[in-house]
Amino acid sequence: MTGLHRTLSDNKVFNHFRNLRLAEKLFIQGLTVVIILIIIQAWLNGVQQSLMNYLPPIGLAILLVITYLVQPIILGGTNIALINSLHKTRGWQVGIWLNGIFLLLTFATINLILRITFSLSFLPDIAIIDILLSFPFGCIARFSNGGWTKPID
Amino acid sequence: MGNVASSLFQGLVRFTNKSLVKNLIIITLCITFVFVQIYYPYDYYTSAARKSNSTFQVGIDYVYESDNLTQIYGQVAQIYSLGFKVIRIDLVCDPLDNNSISNQETDMFFNATSHYGLAVALVISNYEPIGTINYYLNRWGSNLTYIQIMNEPETSSGWDVGALYTDDEIISDFNNIYAAVASYHLSVQYYTNFGIGYVLRSNIPIELSQKLSFVGLDVYMNSFLVLSPLFIQNLQEITHKNVVITEFGMSTTDSAAQTNYIISGLNLFKSMGLKGCWIVYWNSVNNNYGIRGTQTETAVGDWIAQNTK
Question: Largest alpha-carbon pair distance within chain B?
Fold first, then answer.
């Protein structure tokens, strides 16, 4: 057992989360991922114009890198960290970036359908609906990756 | 029965929990979501008339300088009778001879549009000399409703084909033309149109739109018609301006294909709640865009009668 694992195992907060029911764990996982997605999306909407105007086309390239490389890595990393923490597993079944881009595409597709179908704006309408969808999103996030209960090396 | 369902579910969970299977499922879903993002907006808006009460302005691009002087008045009357509300024209004049044929044609054109109460959108091309613009606006400026400053500037080339203008050149040329036009204090709306290529130079519409009343988007080819809801929404987001489809047409000798393309586009843009769509062209000049005298002309006239106020 590494120092980090021992620290997490001894942590009262993590132990409390691990003792929650599965539905509660899924809700916490979904809520965390959705909040991260909303924050990043709102921030990107805010800086989109400034980035596109920054030393064109360098700004556009930076925007694309943040959207499709950095954001999925943050999401995928957070998701597997949550899975390992809440379900006491190790490692991952799906790559961090792939897992992140899947979560991002799921979120973006749901938002696109909401925006087109109901003519809603992202803030606050769609963001509130996304938060209300935390539990199903948690199920999707849990399904999209998983760790191992046995030692992986 | 319950046990069978439970064991089936357990088996499914065990199967999908294998790393390889899970990766394949995730990749398949990602590809599916990409397709949904591409096709859903177009399918949604074309599946039914979503905003049937919205006012929608259909316009057309008329190259009147290619017609005879005596034809122009009648052609404008025909355009009016079909229900078009806007005619988009190029800047055609001869500043050196007040009575030149091109000036007579322009006089004739504005006589007709004034008589029928049609709005006119003037296209000032990227290379138009300021002296010519001044002459034109002095003489016919009061007849205009819209002025287009530059044409698809993001793809305009400088000294040779493929030598794209730099951002600085586009912005300085735009500012020069804008300053010349604005000095006349005309009661017109300014716009600039962009092709699909604007996505690679998004800073251009962001920069230019600050001085514009709305922005135009030019849509050609079926593929870009399908993708147009995404481009329109993006252009609205980055410029914070309304989008009008300022060029929309198909160059083909297949009148049925042209009719189908234009009618499906009109349905889409109206359903999206856009202010208008301007078709290119009324008459063909070295191409097959023109709808005059074809079944497309009749179909568009019928569409306007049924769908606009």
Answer: 95
The pTM score is 0.86
Are the C-beta atoms of B249 and B262 separated by less than 8 Å? yes
Nearest chain A residue to B17 by CA: give it. A146
CA distance A115 to chain B (A): 10
A150 falls within a domain: no
**A34: amino acid identity, one letter:** V
Which of chain A's residues have a Cβ under 8 Å away from the Cβ of B238?
48-49, 52
Q: Are A56 and B34 an interchain contact pair (Cβ–Cβ within 8 Å)? A: no
Is residue A43 a part of any domain in this protein?
Answer: yes
Distance from CA of A117 to the nearest CA of B (A): 8
Number of domains in chain A: 1
Backbone angles phi, psi at B138, to 5 degrees: -60, -40
* Res B43: pLDDT: 94
Domain boundaries along the sequence of chain B: 2-45, 54-307
Which residues does residue B243 pair with via DSSP β-bridges, in sequence order? B215
Residue A35: inside a domain = yes
**Mean pLDDT across the stretch B136-161?**
88
B54-307: CATH class: alpha beta
